[in-house]
Amino acid sequence: MNDDVPGGLNPRGQDPQTTNDGSPSRRSVLRTTAGVVGAASAGLGLGALGASSASAAEHTADADPLSVPARRGATMAGVRFDRRSTVRVGIVGLGNRGGSMIDLFLAVEGVRVVAVCDPVKDKAERAAAKVTAAGQPAPAVYAHGEDDYANLCRRGDIDFVYVATPWDFHFEMARTALLNGKHVGVECPVALRLDQLWELVDLSERTRRHCMQLENCCYGRNEMRVLRMAHAGLFGDLLHGAGAYNHDLRGLMFDPGYYEGPWRRLWHTRLRGDLYPNHGFGPVANYMDVNRGDRAVSITSVGSPSLGLAAYRKEHMPAGDPSWKETYIESDRTISLVQTAKGRVIRLEHDVSTPHPYSRINSLGGTKGVFEDYPERIYLEPDHTNDEWADFSAYADWDHWLWKNHANPPGGHGGMDYMMVFRLMQCMRLGLAPDFDVYDAATWTAPVPLSHLSIKAKGAPQQIPDFTRGEWRKARSGMDSTEPVE
Known about the structure:
Helices cover about 30% and strands about 15% of the residues. With about 475 residues, it is α/β, with parallel strands linked by helices. An eight-stranded mixed β-sheet has the order 13-12-11-7-10-9-8-14. α7 runs parallel beside α8. The longest helix has 15 residues, at about 415-430. It is globular, with a radius of gyration of 21 Å.
């Protein structure tokens, strides 16, 4: 997750405003409200990096999703990391998310945090102090301006760059890491435009470095149990699934002390689609072996009116607050239907602007039964015959080996963060292929621009590109891994 909740919270319960290339600077994105919002309401769309007055959502339509560009490198599907005894990590972004995730990197054996980076010097220094407190050598600190992350990426003693910054910078930071020969893992979403997703796919293939969407929800205990049960055939032939990010973030988005500036709230002035599909899409895609025997081919989206943030502002924000200059267009509730090549249906939802108990829905159905989460419950034939929900805990024997070996993991979000970090670092140390790759990152993120375009087109289906260029037809391993021999 990307700065969405505090790390310890379990969700179950030459213009100075621009960079040298003319794109908005970190300062302008994080600090400015009125100017950005005015441009957004005039059609800025989703382009904090690289889009000018034209909507970047419209820019995505310039590249026909049905037109697959020629591959300029070899596939990264199934490509193993080089084996190493120690994984050397550089961390970029040390706010709510990065500042807590560094603890987990330090908790995994065989990992050394070599460098940390954040333009806010205090944050970088606090992170460096954590490293030395853990008994590791003092890391290099990069806190000299908003572009210092590039210097971190140029180091020769880093194997993996972890990016936990505001969304606007994910693409450029991932791109820079790849161009400097580093594997990179990025918090959600990995990018915000189709052309950016394609560029990351191409760069991963050309540089032979993995670019991963660090989707922690794929490592939830329930998600991994359902995954193993689905692959064992307990649900029969899979038919449908659902995932969501329904999480009331109104208080956090208007809290000047939580997010650094209004960057997350400002995305609600730019896009009408699903801003954060990965938490719901990733687990269900894994159940259905998307990119490993099936493929997401199209998405149809509809959205409700955008009223929640304005209503919250009216009740809680004083007159004269900069937020009063903002016009919110993002649908309070976005609902999307994704169709796969095998005819399966995946429902995605996004709502962070209205009162709602936390839910990722996390549902899977097939010819033998169905699982639904929040609260967890299951109905499977022949185990159940009374048309009443049954106790999911009865299937604990199906827990993934990660959860059997780490029953009480440290860290936030119920332990899934630690599982994700542990497993990724394990794959790098042992020279294994990662559980997910750049094709998954692109697929899970494509609903961001495509849902916006579908809503604008009154629900017309939008084609999801085949980022694998045909490799999806080949069955291969993914999240449902076997325990390796250390």
